[in-house]
Design a protein that fits this description.
201 residues; alpha+beta; Sortase, Chain: A; eight-stranded mixed β-barrel; 2 helices; 32% strand
């Protein structure tokens, strides 16, 4: 009789111990699955958000039409030198006499790739050399206001075409003749290269 009770108690003890282990593992597995599910859902929501943004950016162009040569397309504000300057489509002398010229073969400000602007050193850009790394360049157009931050300053030969090459991200390249006080046709170009950091549409 005692032996039977002993075995019954042992079986009950083993059953309770097994139940404890099982319930603990089930709890851990359930907790782990819940954490995985939340992380997975958050990751997928982030991917969906990025994909939607890319789809919207791809489908909806910033500009409804391509500006005509000589048309004013916006303004360039340079807070460092307290200047707000008009931007015209084209870089012929007619446009450069009025303000800044937008190189027509480059993208428009705010668009992905390299938007190239040029101006005369002895008029609108005579203080451009005072602009430093991390200073802001703010372009306002019909598509919105685009804030760029200067990341690089270059001095290149006047025939250097690298200033107009495509870029992997939205970039603003501002160029003028150099040296600033050179008499006659200047042999070099002073170039600001800035990345888009903020868009307001």
């Amino acid at each position: 009789m005692k032996k039977k009770l002993f075995y019954s108690g042992l079986i009950l003890l083993l059953f309770l111990f097994g139940f404890y282990l099982t319930s603990t593992n089930v709890y851990k597995m359930a907790k782990a699955y819940l954490i995985y599910k939340q992380t997975d859902d958050k990751w997928h929501r982030q991917l969906d958000k990025q994909a939607t943004k890319k789809l919207i950016d791809k489908q909806v162009p910033l500009y409804s039409h391509q500006p005509k040569m000589g048309e004013q397309i916006g303004t360039l504000k340079i807070p460092t030198i307290h200047s707000t300057l008009p931007i015209y489509e084209g870089t012929n002398e007619d446009e450069l006499e009025q303000g800044i010229g937008h190189y027509a073969k480059s993208v428009l400000p705010g668009e992905n790739d390299n938007s190239v602007l040029a101006g005369h050193r002895d008029t609108i850009f005579r203080h451009l050399g005072e602009v430093k790394i991390d200073d802001k360049l703010i372009v306002s157009t019909s598509a919105g206001t685009f804030t760029y931050k200067v990341r690089k300053i270059r001095i290149v030969d006047k025939d250097d075409r690298t200033v107009i090459v495509p870029k992997p991200r939205a970039t603003l390249t501002v160029s003028t003749c150099y040296p600033f006080r050179y008499i006659g046709p200047a042999p070099q170009r002073y170039v600001l290269i800035a990345n888009l950091v903020h868009t307001k549409r």
